[in-house]
Amino acid sequence: MEKYAGTPQQPKILNKDAIPLDAKIPIPSGTYNSLKEIGSHCNACRRCPLGESRTHAVVGRGNRHAPIIIIGEAPGKCEDETGKPFVGPAGKLLERMLLKAGILTRGELANAYLCNAIKCRPPANRTPTAMEIAACKGYLLEQIRLVDPKIVVLVGATAVRGLLGDKRGITQLRGVWRNWEGRLVMPILHPSYLLRNPESLKGSARWLTQRDLKKVKKKLNELA
Ligand code: SF4
Q1: Which end of the chain lies in a sparser environment, N or C, as judged by fewer CB atoms within 10 Å?
Q2: Does 104 score more than 70 pLDDT?
Q3: Ligand 1, atom 7: nearest CA belongs to which residue?
């Protein structure tokens, strides 16, 4: 059965429900009308092997029209169980740091939408493979298009690799503004690394990350 019409460069989807089943089928920009629709597809998705072992696909939470989208690596155990991103120990640390930077106000995600590059938990929290990142990327790009943020915060090396294709280490990339598709991008260290390195003195990983988040808040104020 034909699934697409249009040019090979810009295929037009005729049957959206076929998408989750085959990673060879691209997810062109404009496929989805809502984040809810993306969520239901992710929960039925088998584009990569992670779909077989997940409890829940972890799609996103927060303000669906936020000026900042925060993209992590992949769900961990707590996220897989709840279906919500950034709810485990690392997510809680990030949320405290976002509060401290003034990006979040207590209990409110008005300025941010949180999601991951990969929607299903890799076994034993291993790093997602290049194939898994590629299979899931269409959903991420659609989330960014629908939220339409001014600023993208990439949390950790996998998120940077997934969106920008930059394979350099996160310590080299963090704290420096990038431009991607007309949006400002700030890479930061992953909070699970910060949990393993709790030092918060000047120059430490936590101190640098807090400073990077302050840069994000300052830029948000400038753009407002
Ligand atoms: S990780 Fe992404 S591509 Fe893989 S099964 Fe889950 S939703 Fe589909």
Answers
A1: N
A2: yes
A3: 42
